[in-house]
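Let us practice reading a record.
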Amino acid sequence: MVKIVRKQVLNPSVTLLEVEAPRIARKARAGQFIILRLDGPGERIPLTIADYDREKGTVTIIFQKVGLTTQLLADLSEGDCIQDFVGPLGLPTELPEGARRICVVGGGVGCAIAYPQAKSCHAAGLEVDVIAGFRSRDIVILEDEFKAVSDHCYIMTDDGSYGEKGFVTVKLQELIDAGARYDAVIAIGPIPMMKFVSQVTRPYGIKTIVSLNPIMIDGTGMCGGCRVTVGGKMKFACVDGPDFDGHEVDFDELMNRNAVYRAQEAEEKGRHDCRMDQLAHELIGH
């Protein structure tokens, strides 16, 4: 059982919780995740470690309210406890040997996962560019935090209400065309975004690391629910990832697998087709 020591509402649908978990904080590295369960009958959900403080013994998670468990999690207050909080799980991010300049690309709530990547690279003395994309100004998160751990930080919004107008891929292509020589690009966000980022970098042979989010249950490789196809081979995101080579991931298969329970979810909550869902279906169709 872990206690919540800090709660911050980042926007109407995204919440930050800092919890006391000293054993996890001692071992956590960028790219790893935890699995939590609110109470005995509750479901297990994976959340990426957004930050950690080894001295304080705390771990930070940032999540979006998308289902019952995340809604209940967001309803908790400072001083409340979470029954199960297990980690760190998965493999930490590994950059190419000798890397000097990195571009970290985050989309929406995926920026919560992109932040520890940028922070880790910055702490290692690398030159870090950050491209963070959001639908509009009202859902921008972690801007100050990104600026503190990057050499250049670009905020993109679909509607142009803040930062620069356009998708993150537009800015990435612009920077590459301007002569940016990246040793690696780390892309984290909606599956279509990661797919498009990988398509931008492929012609230049830029190592592209993506963090995948398949359906996950136990986080130990036993259930096989999080299997993904990478380079024509089956991998388990929980033990082989969650980071993979974006140029080898079968993104269309991943989108199909993530949608397997959508009909049941629609029956429970009423149908909701978000912008990224619509784009995913269009991609699969092509």
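A brief commentary: Confidence is low (pLDDT under 50) at residues 271-276.
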